[in-house]
């Protein structure tokens, strides 16, 4: 499969995950019973993990070697273990296996780690434990370990065959007998990720059977001991919701070609009291921008006919107040390369899909809107009257060529700018990126000639 095909496949997969995660975020969990709320939270957690994994996989396109890595973040130890328990509880219960969490009194409350990598480690180890355990219990344990933390995953299965113990974490090695299919890669992936984090992983059999996998990771960030919750249902409702962001009175143009994403984003925006108009592609967005006033543009980057980047460029090329319209890009691509392109086009901000929660979505929008408003204010210097033209360059040019020639030059510049603006509008509507690049280059040259 070519990198372009893989890129498109990842984009479409993330689009589907966006629909799942966004739909879950719209469910009013306060109206659900505890068991149903836990199921909904479980779906949301799985969707977020899948979204993060797909985002990381995009790094394969750039390096061809490894998954894109995220920076370390603060991970709540107890909350993290409860999330893992919540996701795996149904599969374990299907085999009459109970999953429990045990937090040592001196375990760190938080650690600094890449949460996606830590999640992948636990998912591979626990998936393996469930596969080789017919019934009984799996315990997830957090312990202190010097400047870091230790995690143990105990199961009541048959244990590891002694002749395989030394090769347990090698690729394509299966540590026991199971009717369930498997490739033997799970523990190898776990070891690779642990080592990339600067930690260690080991295994040993219990004296009474079963197996213990121990992870030691650096990065304890202090704080009081981690307090365990009583149940997966407690974990599902552990976060206290904040105040809902208010977008009352805001006219929002949502440019998005995926119907599921349209529904999710529209419902979230309307829940925050915004008035929403939808454009199903870039060309329709341009038509609506020319016919209706808006306070905010949300634009998907990958759209047919006219791309989101070209829509943003069109807005910024306008010669009226619409050029200052706050613009936020929505994209499943959040790698640095894509962020740089979006910023260069003139977006005020970027929100990565999927949209995982109304409050986070709304607060991000309010932050970008506030940032756009502050950038609209002219910079005032106490000694100079700053403007769109560098007066030193302009005055030097006028003095050099004389007033009559300067007047002729300004007329020519004005004519050129009008022609460029007209060409950019036509090219943006038709998606003619070659013309957009060429005319933008001419624009920079013409404006720069007089210090603009």
Notes on the structure:
- Helix 4 packs parallel to helix 5 (115-132) and helix 10 runs antiparallel to helix 14.
- The strands form three sheets. This protein has a five-stranded mixed β-sheet with strand order 2-4-5-7-6. A five-stranded parallel β-sheet has the order 9-8-10-11-12, sandwiched between helices. A two-stranded antiparallel sheet has the order 1-3.
- It has helices spanning 3-26, 34-57, 59-63, 77-93, 115-132, 186-196, 232-236, 259-271, 282-291, 308-317, 336-345, 358-376, 391-401, 403-430, 433-449; strands spanning 73-76, 97-103, 110-113, 136-145, 148-155, 200-205, 211-218, 251-255, 275-279, 296-300, 327-331, 349-352.
- The protein contains 15 helices and twelve strands.
- 49% of the residues lie in helices and 16% in strands.
- It is elongated, with a radius of gyration of 28 Å.
- The chain has three domains: 70-231, Histidine kinase-like ATPase, C-terminal domain (Heat Shock Protein 90), CATH 3.30.565.10; 251-376, Rossmann fold; 391-449.
- It has 452 residues and is an alpha/beta fold.
- The longest helix is centred in the last third of the chain and has 28 residues, at 403-430.
- Mean pLDDT is 77; it is low at 62-68, 177-182, 222-241 and 377-386.
């Amino acid at each position: 499969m070519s990198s372009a095909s893989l890129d498109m496949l990842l984009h479409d997969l993330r689009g589907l995950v966006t629909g799942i995660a966004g739909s879950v975020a719209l469910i009013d969990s306060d109206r659900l019973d505890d068991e149903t709320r836990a199921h909904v939270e479980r779906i949301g957690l799985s969707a977020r993990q899948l979204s993060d994994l797909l985002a990381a996989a995009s790094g394969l396109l750039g390096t061809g070697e490894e998954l894109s890595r995220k920076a370390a973040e603060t991970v709540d130890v107890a909350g993290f273990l409860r999330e893992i328990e919540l996701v795996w509880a149904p599969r374990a219960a299907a085999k009459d296996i109970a999953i429990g969490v045990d937090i040592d009194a001196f375990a760190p409350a938080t650690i600094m780690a890449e949460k996606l990598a830590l999640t992948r480690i636990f998912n591979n180890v626990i998936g393996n434990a469930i596969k080789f355990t017919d019934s009984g219990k799996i315990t997830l344990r957090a312990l202190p370990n010097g400047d870091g933390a230790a995690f143990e995953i105990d199961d009541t299965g048959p244990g590891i065959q002694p002749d395989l113990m030394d090769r347990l974490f090698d690729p394509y090695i299966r540590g026991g007998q199971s009717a369930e299919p498997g490739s033997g890669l799970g523990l190898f992936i776990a070891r690779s990720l642990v080592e990339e984090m600067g930690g260690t992983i080991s295994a040993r059999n219990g004296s009474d059977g079963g197996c213990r996998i121990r992870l030691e990771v650096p990065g304890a960030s202090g704080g009081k001991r981690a307090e365990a919750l009583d149940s997966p249902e407690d974990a599902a409702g552990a976060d206290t919701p904040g105040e809902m962001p208010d977008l009352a009175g805001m006219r929002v143009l949502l440019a998005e070609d995926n119907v599921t994403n349209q529904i999710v984003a529209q419902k979230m925006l309307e829940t925050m009291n915004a008035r929403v108009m939808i454009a199903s592609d870039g060309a329709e967005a341009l038509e609506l921008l020319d016919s209706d006033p808006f306070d905010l543009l949300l634009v998907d980057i990958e759209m047919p006919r006219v791309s989101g980047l070209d829509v943003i460029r069109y807005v910024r090329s306008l010669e009226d107040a619409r050029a200052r319209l706050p613009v936020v890009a929505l994209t499943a691509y959040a790698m640095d390369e894509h962020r740089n392109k979006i910023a260069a086009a003139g977006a005020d901000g970027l929100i990565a899909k999927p949209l995982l929660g109304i409050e986070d979505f709304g607060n991000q929008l309010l932050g970008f809107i506030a940032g756009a408003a502050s950038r609209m204010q002219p910079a005032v210097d106490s000694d100079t009257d700053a403007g769109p033209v560098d007066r030193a360059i302009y005055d030097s040019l006028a003095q050099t060529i004389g007033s009559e020639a300067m007047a002729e030059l300004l007329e020519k510049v004005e004519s050129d700018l009008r022609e460029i603006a007209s060409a950019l509008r036509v090219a943006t509507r038709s998606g003619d990126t070659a013309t957009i690049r060429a005319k933008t280059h001419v624009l920079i040259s013409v404006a720069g000639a007089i210090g603009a």
